[in-house]
Every structure is written in C-alpha cells, then in structure tokens.
C-alpha cells in the first residue's frame, strides 16, 4: 500500500489516544478469570485463557471492520458480546456465569501502568488530552472511570457519533474538529498498528505504541509504519519528551 510522507512535527493541538489496547488492557478481563477458564495462575499469559482472549479481541475487531465496509452499524458493546459468544463456543466453554463475569470485567478494564502518569505529565505541560475510541459512550465512561483516567482527559470521543468504526478517515476527523486544529497538529497514539496507520493516512502525527510482549521482542513493523509514523515507542512514558 502506498505511503504518504510522514507529517512534519508542529505545535501540539492535542494528544489523542486510542483506548482499548493503548490506555486499557483488553486482556485484563480474561486475565482476572484465567484459573476458571484454564489458564495458569491469575493471568491470561498462556493456555486456554490466552487463546480465548485473543479470539475475543480478533472477532470484536473483525465485526467492526465488516460493518463499516457494508455500511451497517451496531455499537461496540453489542459487538463485544457477540465476539465473546463466538470465542467461548469455539473453545467449548458453556458457562453463563463466566460470560456475565467477563462482560462485566470488560466494563472495568485495568489501565496500563504507564497510562495515568503519561496523561498527567502531558497535562502538566499544558497539552490537551483525549481518547478517540471504537467504544460506545457508556462503555468508555465506565472504563475511564474505573481506571481512574478521567481527571487527566479533556475529552472522550466515540465513533458512536458517526456510526462507523476505525480506521474510517472521518473518525480521526472527530479529534481535529473537537480541538479546532488541523490533523497535523493532532498527536495520535495507538497500540494497534492498523489504527496508527489510519490516523497517519488521515494526516495526524502518529506514535505507534509497540509494547514489549512476553517473549521480549517488539512486534514487527507493519503497514509501513516505521516510515509513515513519526515514531515508535515502547512505553507511554517516552511520549512527553518525544513530542514537546
């Protein structure tokens, strides 16, 4: 796929973050119930629990992309439920109580340890911060509140207003409109390579958050992001010094 030149650094109109997989740990829901599912200890680090969590996430995103391509829309809460049902059935898990527990846990996902400190550091430097997410407004309000991130955010923006999912270009336009600035003045951060690519194609300054996975190696470069994005970071702690 053709790659436009990376946006030039400019003044920061706002730092806008993806929520799920960037500020919030999407695997924390299954992680809290791993022993009940079949994973080791109390995390989703392997076995049946890890496979369930990975498929749940993959189906959730797959449904969002299919709906956007066909012009249909259901909110992210509905997609999250449907994706979990498929993941549980695929792994032979028939437990209504566990299903309800996992859906409840998804409403209160853990924030990554570097999330709140990075947001606070940006706000201390006078930079506006926001979330731009596929999540429905109710999901995001619950998750942001439970994770304790609300005090460090100026806005929480949902695709629900547009009824289309990322990486549709008009989703990223929500951030520019909210802060009254050009796309090049938005610094967008995502731990999802496809999302980072979408924001970069729209014209935002993009930092791809490529956290170190359990095997000690970073994810490989995808979508030409090493050329297209302004930078790749392993932790949100790097961000304030990189953009200011």
UniProtKB/TrEMBL annotation:
It catalyses: an (S)-2-haloacid + H2O = a (2R)-2-hydroxycarboxylate + a halide anion + H(+). Keywords: Hydrolase. Its EC number is 3.8.1.2. One of its GO terms (molecular function) is (S)-2-haloacid dehalogenase activity. Pfam families: Hydrolase (PF00702). PANTHER family: HALOACID DEHALOGENASE, TYPE II (AFU_ORTHOLOGUE AFUA_2G07750)-RELATED, HYDROLASE, HALOACID DELAHOGENASE-RELATED. Belongs to the HAD-like hydrolase superfamily. S-2-haloalkanoic acid dehalogenase family. Catalyzes the hydrolytic dehalogenation of small (S)-2-haloalkanoic acids to yield the corresponding (R)-2-hydroxyalkanoic acids. This is (S)-2-haloacid dehalogenase. It comes from Falsiroseomonas stagni DSM 19981. The lineage of its organism: Bacteria, Pseudomonadati, Pseudomonadota, Alphaproteobacteria, Acetobacterales.
């Amino acid at each position: 796929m053709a790659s436009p030149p990376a946006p030039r650094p400019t003044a920061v109109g706002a730092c806008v973050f993806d929520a799920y997989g960037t500020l919030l740990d999407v695997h924390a829901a299954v992680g809290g119930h791993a022993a009940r599912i079949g994973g080791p200890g109390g995390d989703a680090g392997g076995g049946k629990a890890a496979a369930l969590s990975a498929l749940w996430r993959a189906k959730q995103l797959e449904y969002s992309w299919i709906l956007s391509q066909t012009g249909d829309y259901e909110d992210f809460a509905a997609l999250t439920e449907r994706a979990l049902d498929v993941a549980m059935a695929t792994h032979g898990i028939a437990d209504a109580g566990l299903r309800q527990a996992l859906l409840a846990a998804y409403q209160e996902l853990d924030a990554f340890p570097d999330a709140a400190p990075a947001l606070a550091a940006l706000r201390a430097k006078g930079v506006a911060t926001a979330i731009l997410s596929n999540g429905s407004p109710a999901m995001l309000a619950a998750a942001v509140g439970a994770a304790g991130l609300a005090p460090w955010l100026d806005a929480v923006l949902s695709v629900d207003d547009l009824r289309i999912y990322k990486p549709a270009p008009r989703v990223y336009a929500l951030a520019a409109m909210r802060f009254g600035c050009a796309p090049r003045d938005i610094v967008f951060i995502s731990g999802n390579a496809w999302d980072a690519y979408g924001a970069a194609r729209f014209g935002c300054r993009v930092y791809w958050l490529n956290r170190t996975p359990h095997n000690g190696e970073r994810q490989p470069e995808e979508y030409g992001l090493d050329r297209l994005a302004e930078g790749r970071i392993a932790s949100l702690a790097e961000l304030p010094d990189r953009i200011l």
